[in-house]
Specification:
The protein has 228 residues and is mainly α. It is built from eleven helices and no strands. The chain has one domain (2-227): MetI-like fold. The radius of gyration is 20 Å and the shape is globular.
């Protein structure tokens, strides 16, 4: 309990004094996670619409497979990306290992099943009468899809929020492909892992509190946007 209290006071001190290293790490965490969430959303929303409205063999199997990947371990994604972009890997020539870009790619792969699966589920909950009405008024397939997305916007925004939360809280990918390089790829989760291994529990708790605070602020902002 005492350590938790010391961690809280340390977190407040780091925030109030705008500790340069902590602010840098927090900013990088936010930048990488927001970028991965936005890019994954740009891919998953139209793809989710396409999967939902199209009929094709194996559709149920595909949806079940997507939902299975909700719980895939981050270290498994980290290993896959590491093998893919390592010097001996097929994309090793791009020289992206241990850079923020490959961390973004890894997080995108991690949250894509979540965004895709929840988007399909959100669209499945739209009343068919609304779509039938839109089509009867002459709406095209694209226009009907837009109507469905507007009706499911609250659930879709919740999916984006969940994807962002999954991205900013993961540590396996960040460690394996980012390398936890100070001033370049170190983010809050890898800093927590490092300080815990060093025995500095107060700083680890402080960083954890800062991470929760950032996630809370972002979620509040997105929820306000959702309500409007």
């Amino acid at each position: 309990m005492i350590e938790l209290w010391h961690g809280l006071t340390r977190a407040i001190e780091l925030i109030v004094t705008l500790d340069p290293e902590v602010m840098e790490i927090a900013g990088r965490s936010l930048q990488i996670s927001v970028t991965s969430a936005l890019l994954a959303s740009a891919i998953c929303l139209p793809l989710g619409v396409l999967i939902h409205f199209r009929r094709f063999p194996g559709k149920r199997v595909l949806v079940s497979l997507i939902q299975t990947f909700f719980s895939i371990p981050t270290v498994a994604i980290g290993l896959f990306v590491f093998v893919l972009f390592s010097r001996a890997g097929p994309l090793g020539g791009l020289d992206l290992m241990f850079t923020p870009l490959v961390m973004v790619l890894g997080q995108m792969i991690l949250i894509t099943p979540i965004l895709l699966g929840l988007t399909i589920a959100a669209l499945s909950g739209v009343d068919k009468a609304i779509l039938d009405t839109a089509r009867s008024l002459g709406a095209s397939g694209f226009q009907a899809a837009v109507v469905a997305l507007r009706e499911a916007r609250f659930a879709v925004m919740a999916a984006v929020i969940m994807g962002f939360g999954r991205a900013i809280s993961e540590v396996g990918i960040a460690l394996m492909v980012g390398g936890n390089i100070r001033g370049f790829t170190r983010v809050i989760t890898t800093a927590i892992s490092l300080e815990t291994s060093r025995g500095d529990l107060e700083l680890s708790l402080a960083l954890g509190i800062i991470l929760i605070s950032i996630a809370l602020i972002i979620n509040i902002i997105l929820n306000r946007i959702q309500q409007r």
